[in-house]
């Protein structure tokens, strides 16, 4: 991790201890199942090498593509790693095998790719996960096609090396009818002696279990709640990323004057405005409305006007001590990312994953 550039105020502070804490929380919900953290998309914007190394106790990891898996192997990660999108060509199968990776298979062509691979290549794979589309209708084979595909896979690999997985479309809405439908369809799929994996974070914390042996939490490990009806605090989750910057200017605006692009916020009284050095160029959403909470010093204030590319204005109100240099927290410690996600009309996963490359990640404790 390069040192914090001297002249940048905005940075994302990453707390590996919080990640470990949240993994322990996931472990309690897992109730004996093994927990494979999902660290795709650079660990939801946090830095995948840092967080993978922070949890040597993790049973395995889930990533989306081969490049992400190879990054983990280069970083010295030895645990099983499953590539959720699988291999798209023969070269990818060879690479995956050379690094003892586990490949998902979500369409017939990927079974054919494995059949076409030489036996010594296949022997290098740690395993295969056959993905069943039980109603999400994203990736996966139909339950009807699964038995024949499983037979083709167990002709190539040991029965116990062929796992079966599915993904819920509505686990964040407990009681949604599609959850029961998906479980019912999955129950008809043969799984042999292989592992079974069903649950993302939402399914895990809402107690879904169906004889599965591996859970795949993502967002809860980063400190975001996966279910709107349960707060991160209730779930005992800690923020792993704290997005920080500083005030770089403070000025007084007269009543009737507006602030920022579009002049969409107008002062109704003389107002002290602070400018935080961070904007949508850093991944702080432009669609956040006036009134979004920001911590300045140790108080909560609110944004005014449009978010710019490099700055956002806040109403300092009765915060007389704030001036250039005062620290600000946009989300993280003391300000749950879920509140900002709600204000931006999205989910915490999107906010975390879209922090841009110009924001240095600073690892706490380094
Ligand atoms: C991203 C992903 C997960 C993790 O989802 P969260 O909602 O972040 O817990 C689990 N399984 C699959 C297949 C995924 O793509």
Tell me the total number of β-strands. 16
Structural class: alpha/beta
Mean pLDDT: 96
Per CATH, which architecture of the largest domain? Answer: Alpha-Beta Barrel
Rg calculated over all Cα atoms: 23 Å
Could you name the CATH class of the largest domain?
Answer: Alpha Beta
Per DSSP, what share of the residues sits in E-state strands of 2 or more residues?
A: 15-25%
* CATH homologous superfamily title of the largest domain: Alanine racemase
Name the strands of the widest sheet in spatial order.
10-11-14-13-12-15
Could you estimate the helical fraction of the residues in percent? 25-40%
**Structural shape:** elongated
Task: Give a quick precis of the structure.
The chain is an alpha/beta fold and 366 residues long.
Can you walk through the features of this model?
The structure is a single chain. 28% of the residues lie in helices and 19% in strands. It is of the alpha/beta class. The protein folds into two domains: 207 residues, Alanine racemase (TIM Barrel, Alpha-Beta Barrel); 95 residues, Lyase, Ornithine Decarboxylase, Chain A, domain 1 (Beta Barrel), CATH 2.40.37.10. A six-stranded antiparallel beta barrel has the order 10-11-14-13-12-15. Strands 3-4-5-6-7-8 form a six-stranded parallel beta sheet. Strands 2-9 form a two-stranded parallel sheet. It is elongated and about 75 Å long. The N and C termini lie close together (9 Å). The model has no long low-confidence stretch (mean pLDDT 96).
Which structural traits does this protein have?
TIM Barrel, alpha/beta, 16 strands, six-stranded antiparallel beta barrel, 366 residues, elongated, binds pyridoxal-5'-phosphate, Lyase, Ornithine Decarboxylase, Chain A, domain 1, six-stranded parallel β-sheet
């Amino acid at each position: 991790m390069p040192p914090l550039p001297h002249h940048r105020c905005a940075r994302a502070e990453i707390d590996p201890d919080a990640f470990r804490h949240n993994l322990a929380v996931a472990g309690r919900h897992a109730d004996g199942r093994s927990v494979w953290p999902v660290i795709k998309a650079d660990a939801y914007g946090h830095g995948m090498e840092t967080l993978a190394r922070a949890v040597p106790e993790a049973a395995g990891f889930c990533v989306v593509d081969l490049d992400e898996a190879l990054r983990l192997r280069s970083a010295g990660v030895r645990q099983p790693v499953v590539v959720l999108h699988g291999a798209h060509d023969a070269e990818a199968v060879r690479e995956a095998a050379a690094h003892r990776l586990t490949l998902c298979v979500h369409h017939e062509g990927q079974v054919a790719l494995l059949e076409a691979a030489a036996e010594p290549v296949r022997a290098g794979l740690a395993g295969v996960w056959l993905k069943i589309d039980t109603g999400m209708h994203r990736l996966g084979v139909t339950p009807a096609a699964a038995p024949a595909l499983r037979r083709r896979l167990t002709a190539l690999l040991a029965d116990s090396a062929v796992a079966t997985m599915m993904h819920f479309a509505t686990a964040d809405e407990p009681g949604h009818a599609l959850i029961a439908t998906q479980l019912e369809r999955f129950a008809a799929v043969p799984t042999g002696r292989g592992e079974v994996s069903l649950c993302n974070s939402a399914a895990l914390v809402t107690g879904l279990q169906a004889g599965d042996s591996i859970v795949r939490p993502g967002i809860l490990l980063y400190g975001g709640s996966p279910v709107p009806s349960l707060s991160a605090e209730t779930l005992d989750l800690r923020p792993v990323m704290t997005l920080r910057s500083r005030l770089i200017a403070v000025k007084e605006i007269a009543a009737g004057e507006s602030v920022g692009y579009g002049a969409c916020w107008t002062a109704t009284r003389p107002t002290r405005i602070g400018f935080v050095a961070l904007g949508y160029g850093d991944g702080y959403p432009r669609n956040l409305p006036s009134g979004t909470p920001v911590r300045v010093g140790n108080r909560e204030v609110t944004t005014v006007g449009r978010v710019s590319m490099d700055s956002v204005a806040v109403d300092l109100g009765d915060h007389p001590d704030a001036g250039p240099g005062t620290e600000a927290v946009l989300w993280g410690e003391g300000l749950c990312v879920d509140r900002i996600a709600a204000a931006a009309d999205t989910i915490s996963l999107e906010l975390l994953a879209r922090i841009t490359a110009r924001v240095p990640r600073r690892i706490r404790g380094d």
